[in-house]
Amino acid sequence: MSSARIRYAYLKGQTWLYRRNYPKDVAALMGQQALKQSLKTSDAKVARQRAAEVNLRYDDTVQQALSGALSLPQGAVPVNANATDEWTTPSELALARLRATLRHSDPVRYGAVVQPRVTVGSATRRYLILRQNELRPSGFKSVRYSVELFQSKYGKLKLVELTRDQGREFLSLIAQLSPIIGKSERTRGMSLDASVVWSRTGAARITGRTQRRIWSQVNHWLDWCVYEGELAVNPFASVRFDAKVRQQPYAVPTDKEAKQLVGLNDPAIGKVLLVCLLSGMRAGEAAGLLREDLVPKGNLGQFFHVRPNRLRLLKTDAAERMVPVHAALEPVLSDLPVSGPLFPDLKVNDITKRFAKIRVALGMDRPGLVFHSTRKWFITQCERTGVPEHFTASIVGHKSARSENGITYGIYSAGISDEQKRDIVDQVRLPGGCSP
Fold first, then answer.
1. Are residues 55 and 160 both part of a single domain?
2. Which of 247, 278, 338, 429 is most buried as measured by Cβ atoms within 10 A of its Cβ?
3. Same domain? 138 vs 21
4. Banded pLDDT at 302 (limits 50, 70, 90)
């Protein structure tokens, strides 16, 4: 059950076990890939508390390892081109470096006030190493871009030297950025100052929404610095974000457009597009489906078990769910691999880029029409057949649906039955004359 899920822990037999991978840099120094430990209980409540305690020990271990590694000259480590698994078998040199660092480091003096001397550059490196292990690739890419943009301008400053002035300056600079920065080899990796100069060659600027995302991610990093004890307070907390943020809702494909998309039967993404249209799945959820995620339920047919697996995580806890397989998808699924990933050659980036090309080829140039619109099409079909919003939410994995009386549905209900889900999905019809 989702209520018993514990991050970094899993139930094996009658005992909860903890496992959390170290970042690559730390794993090489520690000589092991992950922190593994039995929580020695079968009770989920006790396991959750013990996992939180182990998490604190994990954070301390990573911080100590990184603080030593960051002080060493990185270029002094030779790269072993013949190594096949440096991830799990760190070299003797790496271990020697860690021992030497700890030997020459100052002992911790409890109760003493240590003056922080951490620079913006070193703090961002530590933060990104940790976040890389916690976030999905797409989410980490966005965080890394924002934080490295800030670091390129203020990296040499000490954290304690940051003031509201740098915050206001940073906001004014990102407002001048072009929306195509970083989308070509020429602009990828540019510093903030260089990006601003390059952006002046055109008139387009990033939206307020993008500015807010960059600003928010930099503030999350500063809040982390406060949590780590490297700052007393976030110096940007009192800087007001003034840019107007306009919502850009996704467009819903018309029946004609849906018919064109399905009728094209694109060899690259045609099947995954059909799955999303008839299940309401997000692109990442569909691309990460495994054959074992197809669960038979007797006379109710097959269901997709949308859950975290080795290919992808989920957006929220509510995203884990059972979704009936639409009858029109049965012949499509029979042509997919009989084990492992159903779409082994597809990633979200491949799907969205291919859809953009299809949209241009079919003349669908309406703003907001993207691959995620397939999910909105499914939700719209449910709405048109009279399905209550909170019923649809349980199928598409929305987090905070409300019932007709305004009460948050997930708090007071165990959810709708599989029979009800099957009835809802079976009511969804592809546009007339359209077949997979």
1. no
2. 278
3. no
4. very high
